[in-house]
Amino acid sequence: MALLEIEDIHVRYGDMVALRGLDLTVEEGEVVCIIGPNGAGKSTTLAAVAGGVRPYKGEVRYDGKPILGMPPDRIAALGVSLVPEGRHIFGSLTVAENLVLGAYMRSDRAEIARDRERILALLPRLAERIDFPAGRLSGGEQQMLAVARAVMTRPRLLLVDEPSLGLAPRIVDQIYEILLELRKTEGLTLVINEQSSNRVLKFADRVNVLRAGEIRLAGTAAELADGEAIRHAYFGFEKAAPAAAAPIQTQAQSQGGAA
Ligand code: ATP
């Protein structure tokens, strides 16, 4: 049984249709990426799973149970955690305080402390800055903190919205390496949104291209590795038109006269 099954979901914001029949299945332990241009519906897809928006049609199952319509805190308690686009860390609180907020739904103090130490061992930059106000961290460190805070909820499914946003390529690689390490050590399953396929093809198991509220292409990273099919689906190119026929010469032209 898949860990996450999204079936034919449709979402509208007023008159604006954001998702028009989206299907996505994620197996336990996979890293699945959704890529697509601005406004394609990527954030809406993750919000529909986490309970932030309610599709008017379709079904979402987590671990075999329907979760559509449940409030976000109940979905989080089942093991689904969202790292939102733009990180949304609390800049005036310290790194340590931000991590505590990640565990606010838990009461197992000893376990919380152990999780904190285990996560910080993976993220030495955060451990060094544990008493710094989070607003003073670099963009990459803030992204690491947003991920660490989400992991403090003890999720099975981590939804990560555009972790690369505004970060240098070298830092993006570090973030992905951390996400893959967390998959291994915490047994996480990951769904990651991105605007470009640059990193995704290197790190994901499967890739979905979303455009105008629909999945236009889905495949394994190996199948899509050359990027060609992704480019077509992403930009919505139609099949290449046949080469234009050579202009027909008039009799006058073929005889060297003016047309
Ligand atoms: P981005 O990369 O810009 O975050 P996205 O692929 O995540 O884009 P969404 O944020 O899901 O796309 O937006 C899908 C569509 O829904 C867009 O046209 C967007 O303008 C619209 N939309 C998103 N949120 C709202 C909202 N709260 N109210 C009205 N329209 C919205």
Number of strands: 10
Mean pLDDT: 89
CATH-assigned fold name:
Rossmann fold
The spatial strand order of the largest sheet comes to: 6-7-8-3-9-10
- List of distinct ligands in this structure: adenosine-5'-triphosphate
- Provide the CATH top-level class: Alpha Beta
Order of helices and strands: EEEHEEHEHHHHEHEHEEHH
What is the overall number of helices? 10
Q: Tell me, what's the shape?
A: globular
Query: Can you identify the CATH superfamily?
Result: P-loop containing nucleotide triphosphate hydrolases
Secondary structure: helix percent: 25-40%
Count of separate structural domains: 1
Radius of gyration: 23 Å
- The unreliable regions are 244-259
Portion in strands? 15-25%
Could you say what the CATH architecture is? 3-Layer(aba) Sandwich
**Amino-to-carboxy terminus distance:** 71 Å
Oligomerization state? single chain
What does it look like?
34% of the residues lie in helices and 24% in strands. It has 259 residues and is α/β, with parallel strands linked by helices. It has one domain (4-256): 3-Layer(aba) Sandwich (Rossmann fold), CATH 3.40.50. The strands form two sheets. Strands 6-7-8-3-9-10 form a six-stranded mixed sheet, sandwiched between helices. Strands 2-1-4-5 form a four-stranded antiparallel sheet, covered by helices on one side. The longest helix has 18 residues, at 169-186. It is globular. The model is unreliable at 244-259 (pLDDT under 50). The structure holds adenosine-5'-triphosphate. Adenosine-5'-triphosphate (ATP) binds at residues 13, 16, 18, 36, 38-44, 85, 195.
